[in-house]
Amino acid sequence: MQTTGKKVIALDFDDVVAHFNAHFVVFHNKRYGTDLAYENLYLYDNWELMYGCDRETMALRAHEFYNSREHQEIKPVPGALEAITHLSQNYSLQIVTSRPEHIRDVTLNWINEFFPVHFEKIHFTNGFMGAAGSIIKKKSEVCREIGATVIIDDAIKHVKDVAASGLPALLFDRPWNREEIPSGIHRMHSWQEIVDWIKMNA
What is the mean pLDDT of residues 126-149? Predict the structure, then answer.
């Protein structure tokens, strides 16, 4: 349900608002001696091939990063601050992130530094490295609950899920999502493209 008279836009957090992977690969290379490059992160969930470890080890490394100084030094995605400031004047912007609930405080600290008044709500779905036993919600389910009119995300599996429910989905172009996309999904290469699309369609 919408909580204001404004149309609701759902936004993913990592690599849509915060430039997560660009900073994580630097952290991972320094800490674990790897030689990863952001542009070569072409497999979304294949931890063994991309990072040389299994999912459990990757979860530990991700949480180490969440609690590091480097995490708080993540910068917004280029163009995000200006675009989100502009959109927040006319839309209810709500974060729908796969991040686990137990790193809410770390996430909110970052948001409050760069986007203190821009987002109406933050929804954690526990889809990425959530604690054992945590309840995982589909982003399409959250979008339905909040009455979203469009979602912006970088993960193919999430935009496919949302688009299948009949909601338009904007796929933020990243190295790991450069594959053919079905109808209902629109590939965006910048925040300016996103703003232009929303002006015309949302």
Answer: 84
What tokens were used for 42? 């072409």
Q: What residues are paired with 14 via a beta bridge? A: 18
Other CB atoms within a 10 A radius of the CB of residue 23 amount to: 18
Tokens coding 90 = 């006319």
**Which residue of the set 14, 15, 154, 161 is catalytic?**
14
Establish whether 45 is a catalytic residue.
no
pTM of the model: 0.92
DSSP H helical ranges for the chain: 20-32, 47-51, 55-66, 69-72, 80-87, 104-114, 139-146, 156-164, 191-201
Residue 173 known to be catalytic: no
Give the C-alpha separation, 186 to 194, whole Å: 10
How far is C-alpha 145 from the geometric centre of its chain's CA atoms? 18
Q: What's the length of the chain? A: 202
